[in-house]
Amino acid sequence: MTTIGTSSTTAQVDSYRFTTTLVNEAKLQGAKVLQGEVIGFSFDSENPKMINGVKLEDGRILDCEYAVIAMGAWSASLNSWFKYEIPPNRDIDIELPITGSRAHSVIFQPPEQILADNPISAHALFAKAIIKGSAKELELYPRSNGHLYVCGEGDGVALPYSADLIKPNLTSTKNLIRFAQTLVPILSEYEIIREQACYLPYSETGSPIIGHLPFFENLLVATGHSCWGMLNAPATGLSIAQLILTGRSSIVDLTPFGLE
């Protein structure tokens, strides 16, 4: 066993609390959160390099000065939008090289008595084992609410049309459960409250794609962070905001992350 961090060098981000806090803080600053399925853009009739609206499936068009594609593994939807929404007299060939990789996770909840007698340690655990000839990896994260989040068991099942359609492979989640309970036997006494899956966005280069898209003057992208999206999100968001407001990112050199 190797220690890769301590309480003075490492902290854990609770993804749900982190994202909801950011949204709530943005609302307090005057931001509005609108929900809808994006199907394309509308363009400035006098300047086809300028997007002036975001088209939604229900027929609404949201006026905009800038548009940012930050849809994780679904960011590649952009590729099909331009096949149907080509500005006048322009032949646009944009391919955002993003794919999704499915990863599974399980959430354990300890009985109240066990939690009272044996509070969950704040230590995260990264384990690897050879089971029946194949390598298996598992990551185990305690949550401040007493839950234990366990993830691993990735595969290459195709990305569904919508995040609402994601379904886990129950064989994969059961493998995670067995691995976790073998590694930490007391988990056999915990309740399993969720078996789930998500898709991690990967780029062809393995690096995030951040910055302006070719051809357009006001279309930006921020995606492809794989499993590091939550940790890289603050710097990515600030860089995109600086690009919009000042034309350049002063906190991160975005040259290695561009498409141009």
UniProtKB/TrEMBL annotation:
The protein, known as: Uncharacterized protein
Origin species, per record, is: Entomophthora muscae
Biological classification of the source: Eukaryota, Fungi, Fungi incertae sedis, Zoopagomycota, Entomophthoromycotina
